[in-house]
């Protein structure tokens, strides 16, 4: 078994490869251009892996791990371990980071291969492809809702600027009659121009929102967890899919309290810390913690 530490960037990856004894047998940088990175892993499997041998890889989470994780599995990678980076070091280089990752992997190889936690190391669960797609889908739906709210607020601001909000034919907005009235209401030239742009953007955002909701409803029907959640009163397709895809494999939470911590719903201070704060006359935090999955909280 070989142990590979990867420091990933957009233009290149820096690798540090260790053998069973923990010695570094290869350290280099590889361009992320498809032909060059494929050539490197082909050479790695041909020259380093013998008699069905495999390797384990560790890398830090970033916004573009997906393609590299898929590629590692194509080249006889036994397991990919994704970790949350710690605080930035003062003396930091790509080669040092890759060497530190491979050393971390080799030292804790037994626990990491068995899926056990390592003290001081935050492992990130690699979600299934369907869950990753649903996460992006629900994020798009959230962004569309926020964009719609911003546009509505800008429209209302123009009306308040001229004290025209009282003439709106409906209390709620946007509605068909409200939009029709806004298209013909008399406004100064620049405000009229801005209103036309806002209404055009609002129509586009609402169309995008409806399309996303249709796709979310379809995906909710093929997920057993989302179907179960949507059967609860007040839980729609969007909420059900958003919760189900972010929980993922529920077996990765050993206790119910672990799931509460994942959501960030547990108090931020531990019991001993709360006692010390109370003794000093200070009020301990009692609400949700700052960490956790903020999207669904």
Could you characterize the architecture of this molecule?
There is one protein chain. The chain has helices spanning 34-47, 66-74, 94-107, 109-113, 129-161, 176-184, 189-221, 224-230, 237-247, 256-263, 271-279, and strands at residues 2-8, 12-18, 24-31, 55-60, 77-83, 123-124. By secondary structure, the chain is an alpha/beta fold. The longest helix is centred in the middle third of the chain and has 33 residues, at 129-161. The two termini are 41 Å apart. It folds into 3 domains: 2-124, 2-Layer Sandwich (Nucleotidyltransferase, domain 5); 129-247, no CATH class; 255-297, no CATH class. Strand 4, helix 2 (66-74) and strand 5 (77-83) form a beta-alpha-beta unit.
In short:
With 297 residues, this protein is α/β, with parallel strands linked by helices. The chain has helices at 34-47, 66-74, 94-107, 109-113, 129-161, 176-184, 189-221, 224-230, 237-247, 256-263, 271-279; strands at 2-8, 12-18, 24-31, 55-60, 77-83, 123-124.
Descriptive tags:
elongated, Nucleotidyltransferase, domain 5, 297 residues
Strand portion: 5-15%
Number of E-state strands: 6
The N- and C-terminal alpha carbons lie at a distance of: 41 Å
Please tell me how large the radius of gyration is.
26 Å
Q: Counting H and I runs of at least 4 residues, what is the number of helices?
A: 11
Number of domains: 3
Shape call: elongated
Helices and strands, with pairings:
Elements: E1 2-8, E2 12-18, E3 24-31, H1 34-47, E4 55-60, H2 66-74, E5 77-83, H3 94-107, H4 109-113, E6 123-124, H5 129-161, H6 176-184, H7 189-221, H8 224-230, H9 237-247, H10 256-263, H11 271-279
Parallel strand pairs: 1-4, 4-5
Antiparallel strand pairs: 1-2, 2-3, 5-6
